[in-house]
Amino acid sequence: MSIVLLLIPEVALTKDKLLISMFGGIFLGMGVGLVMRTGAALDGIEVLALYTLKRTSFTITEIIMFINILIFGVAALKFGLETSLYSVLTYFAATRTIDYVVEGIQAYTGVTIISGKSEEIKYELVNHLGRAITVYKGERGFLPGQFEVSSDVDIIFTVITRLEMRRLKNLVYQVDPKAFVFANTIKEAAGGILSRRHAH
Q1: Using CA atoms in the order 47, 48, 49, 50, what is the torsion angle rounded to 10 degrees?
Q2: Where is the domain boundary, 79, 104, 129?
Q3: Are 183 and 113 in contact (CB under 8 A)?
Q4: CA nearest 66: which of 79, 80, 52?
Q5: Which residues contact 198 (CB under 8 A, 6 or more apart)?
Q6: Distance from C-alpha of 32 to C-alpha of 42, rounded to nearest angstrom
Q7: Is residue 10, in this structure, part of any structural domain at all?
Q8: Which of 27, 30, 36, 194 is 20 to 30 A from 154 (CA-CA)?
């Protein structure tokens, strides 16, 4: 990295400190995030964050942000409060980007599906999408004005990545265009047949 910084010429695209802080943070976060996805680290802060991650419930980006705020707080005494605040803004943008690059691309989503054609949907999810499912026994109906009308139904739950969401919807709605589908972002998931590789 030091060699690249030495060889690549500096080109000032803008002098606006706000733009520099925001876009500098985004590009910084993309670089650090890609490095961390491979299990590597750029400097001692990432190493310390990875070490702390195993002993706390905080995310990598929260730990990096906290450490950098402490550093910028000390730097404010020498470089001034304004420069320190711009640095905090840069690292805030960087940590959000790191979080997306490290976790967001393959972030898990829990999907619940309620349909009268649950048997066909279960077959599609397991055999065509390649995902395991969990089935809850429930009742559907209870509509306004028809409260007494209900029927037994299998409520299907599965965990997918964000990139699989469109494919899942297409599979479900091909079977039952009136199926009720809702999704929740899952902050953390482990066990079962989840196959995402964890670098850290």
Answers
A1: 50
A2: 104
A3: no
A4: 52
A5: none
A6: 7
A7: no
A8: 194
Q: Helices then strands (H, E): number in the chain?
A: 7, 4
Q: Are 116 and 140 in contact (CB under 8 A)?
A: yes
Q: Which of 71, 104, 137 is the last residue of a domain?
A: 104
Residue-wise pLDDT for 25-65, tens only, equals 999 889 888 887 777 767 666 666 666 666 666 666 677 77
Do 39 and 199 meet the contact criterion of CB atoms below 8 Å apart? Answer: yes
For the segment 130-146, the average pLDDT, to the nearest whole number, is 83
Name the nearest CA neighbour of 113 among 56, 170, 59, 60: 170
| Placement of tokens 């091909």 in the chain | 174
